[in-house]
Specification:
InterPro entries: MFS_dom, MFS_sugar_transport-like, MFS_trans_sf, Sugar_transporter_CS. This is Major facilitator superfamily (MFS) profile domain-containing protein. Residues 27-478 form the Major facilitator superfamily (MFS) profile domain. The protein is mostly helical and 497 residues long. The chain folds into 2 domains: 9-238, Up-down Bundle (Growth Hormone, Chain: A), CATH 1.20.1250; 277-320 and 334-486, MFS general substrate transporter like domains (Growth Hormone, Chain: A, Up-down Bundle). It contains 21 helices and no strands. The radius of gyration is 23 Å and the shape is globular.
């Protein structure tokens, strides 16, 4: 035994051996800046629409379009950037998205008319669609035992972005106007370009591409920065482990163990490089149930999250418009920035709840419980409430939906293998953008039409259905290693019995 060759190790084993350290902190800071950028660009939608509507005398449908086109761009971008990242690497994926987002964001501040604003905001959405690439990239550097906690920390950057945008709007909008808000909100994405050269490629991606020496070099850098040592032996992906008959020392402890080694053939790189092939893998018998349920949950989560952001402004600016004795004046469209600022802080309790429950009770319980609790907070809003109570109920609903938003972006990358991870999360995120496109028609259109009850009932149905779908997920990913290929991805819960 002692004279045998060193035992091969996977990226997961190397990361666990070296632990979470300085290297991951730098990766967290870089990916977090991208998350701040996306949060700011999304949060400003609740401010820019009413401001532009007042200045250019837009109809409610035109105001809703300003938000919807961003989600339309994200719909295509999330799908495209996921495929690009799986084929050409995570770094190239988020480089292109940062370029598109920063340039289009600055151009939108210079828009001379409604049509040009719609075009450039759609391009911003295309760039923002690359957000799942950054989250998957960061995920692939985290040791399995720390994954849930540190992904919640990563999600905190989104909360920082929403609060930063609400603060910026409170300071900028009353004096300098919406153009300055758009310009300043585009600056964080430019930081991704400035520090791009120091961002490493994912060693998991490199392994699946057969670039073992490059993956080893990055892991050596991780070891140096973390003041740790790499395991002895040669690095392999779990796909190569299966192909050559190597056993994974952690598999004995897995709840979600891979299928028998001989039951599936190795997945070739070429089979996952195209969009059609990737979709076929996502809809393969082993993944189809998870994929469809994820799509529904992403739709419900995006619909409810962005809908609540918009409702915070619409329920305060629209209530006077619906009073029989009131006229729809310029004053009635004045945004209550204080309410928006207060409800933005609801995301911090949401993060704390996620951090406490995600590894203690699991991903599925955390999400389903928060979806159902969100329904309870929204129910009283079927009837018009006082401004203080409305803000309080929206605060509670925002806590819940922020928690589900955090957990779903942790769960989704965990259920897909490295070879199609960003594609799978990207397509699920694209489906979520459809929810984002539809929600302005609800939050803006129905409230403007004085149909608040119908709007809230629709939110209740969507959120409740999302909670049911979470309960139907076939497996839990808490504490499990990430897989590199379809044959080593988690089993359906029924197969574990």
């Amino acid at each position: 035994m002692g004279g045998g060759s060193p035992k091969p190790y996977t990226v997961d084993e190397a990361l666990v051996h070296m632990g979470f350290g300085n290297f991951q902190i730098l990766v967290l800071a870089y990916a977090g800046m991208g998350w701040v950028s996306e949060a700011m660009e999304m949060m400003l939608l609740s401010f820019v629409g009413p401001a532009v509507q007042s200045q250019w005398n837009l109809s409610p449908n035109q105001e809703s379009t300003i938000t919807s086109v961003v989600f339309a761009g994200m719909l295509g971008g999330a799908y495209a950037w996921g495929i690009v990242a799986d084929k050409y690497g995570r770094r190239r994926g988020f480089l292109i998205t940062a370029i598109v987002t920063s340039i289009a964001g600055l151009l939108s501040a210079l828009s001379p008319n409604f049509v040009s604003l719609i075009v450039v905001r759609c391009l911003v959405g295309v760039g923002l669609g690359g957000g799942p690439v950054l989250s998957s990239w960061f995920l692939e550097f985290i040791p399995a035992p720390n994954r849930g906690t540190w992904m919640v920390v990563f999600s905190a950057f989104w909360t920082v972005g929403t609060i930063l945008e609400a603060s910026l709007a409170w300071l900028i909008m009353p004096t300098l106007g919406w153009r300055w808000l758009l310009a300043l909100s585009a600056l964080p994405s430019s930081l991704l370009l400035i520090f791009y050269r120091i961002a490493p490629e994912s060693p998991r991606y490199l392994c699946t591409q057969g670039r073992i020496s490059e993956a080893h070099a990055i892991l050596e850098k991780v070891a140096r920065m973390n003041k740790a040592e790499l395991p002895s032996g040669n690095i392999v992906s779990d796909r190569l482990n299966e192909q050559h008959g190597h056993s994974n020392p952690f598999e004995g402890a897995r709840l979600l163990s891979p299928r028998h080694s001989g039951s599936a053939s190795p997945i070739s790189t070429d089979s996952v490089t195209g969009g059609i092939s990737s979709v076929r893998m996502l809809l393969s018998p082993k993944l189809v149930k998870t994929t469809i349920l994820l799509w529904v949950v992403f739709f419900g989560n995006a619909f409810s999250y962005y809908g609540l952001v918009l409702l915070t402004t619409e329920l305060s600016t629209g209530r006077d418009h619906c009073m029989p004795t009131s006229l729809h004046s310029e004053k009635s469209r004045t945004i209550n920035y204080k309410d928006v600022f207060i409800t933005s802080f609801a995301e911090f309790p949401g993060l704390l709840i996620s951090a406490f429950t995600i590894d203690k009770f699991g991903r599925k319980f955390s999400m389903s419980a928060m979806f159902f609790l969100c329904c309870i907070f929204l129910l009283p809003l079927i009837y018009t409430q006082s401004q203080a109570l409305t803000t309080g109920l929206l605060f509670g609903a925002r806590i819940c939906i922020s928690a589900t938003f955090t957990v779903i972006y942790i769960y989704a990358p965990e259920v897909y293998p490295t070879s199609i991870r960003t594609t799978g999360v990207g397509i699920a995120s694209s489906v979520g953008r459809i929810g984002g496109m539809v929600c302005p028609l609800v939050a803006v259109g129905l409230v403007h039409g004085c149909h608040q009850a119908a709007s809230i009932v629709l939110f209740e149905v969507v959120v409740f259905c999302a909670g049911i779908c979470v309960m139907m997920f076939p497996f839990e990913t808490r504490g499990q290693e990430l897989s590199d290929s379809l044959s080593s991805s988690p089993k359906d819960a029924n197969e574990l019995e």
